[in-house]
Please model this.
Amino acid sequence: MMNQEILNNIYRQIKTDYKYGIVLKGQPGEAVDCPAVFRFNNDWLMTYLIFNGKGYETGLAYSKNLLEWHPLGRILTFSPGNWDARQAGGSIALQEHQWGGSYRLRRFDGKCWLSYLGGAGEGYETEPLSIGLAWTTTPQRPIEWQRCPENPVLHIHQPDVRPFERKTLYRSHILWDQHKTTGHPFVMYYNGKQEGEWIERIGMAVSDDMIHWQRYGREPVIDHGRGISGDPQITRIGNIWVMFYFGYLWQPRAFDTFACSEDLVNWTKWQGPHLVEPSEPWDEKYAHKPWIIKSNEVVYHFYCAVGKQGRVIALATSKKCGHSPLND
Model:
């Protein structure tokens, strides 16, 4: 269990008290979800999920200032006849994870990578879902990323699947730990659903080559006993690993929170104020699924907002940055 003062200090560095508002909406008939922000040259880019009623695809947007975002196109689309025919919801991998750092994508084997939840069933997150990998050498371009032939790399029928993830697998986040804290350079966190009850917990897997993965430990690393704990993102603040994630149904409404670790395995959950929670017309139902970065002494907390304008991507900040023209 980590010292409470360490958690308090982390909270003071990451909290975002000012809601800027909506930064990205879908086209008519589309919902957008699950932002993941990274740097490429002088631009900021965002991968995000697009839901058009049939399933998830992955989009790409860009920004010069982290406030005004412009869609570029799709980078992972439906794959008819395959295991991921109707679900291809991706999120960047191997990002520079130091708090306030460059946030660029590290290349492994000369490639930029993402992991994605995939499945063949049509609809909203239709089960079962598995985890696949894709790569590109041009992450700034809105062109299809190449899927790995070994996909899916994690699924519910593998012999090392654990009880808390036997129903389905959801969004994942992969970091490159060059110190090999776990004995492996690549570490994946993801939420899985157990059979019988709707409980989602966060577990971990490890790899030495980014392609072949093995689950790490028998128990989840984040477990609130009920409801959903999901969509992890990892950063490093000083010598502390910080996991941002969202909670739902173990406290009222959906919200973002965090946990801290010194070894990537044992995590101490924050028990204080939520990082974001519903408070505005455009996020009155859900304010969840975090992606948080620090740039030029400002903390930017991107999240999925659900309210009077449907499912959109919104932003909260540590300093006042005005208000988004998309709010109204």
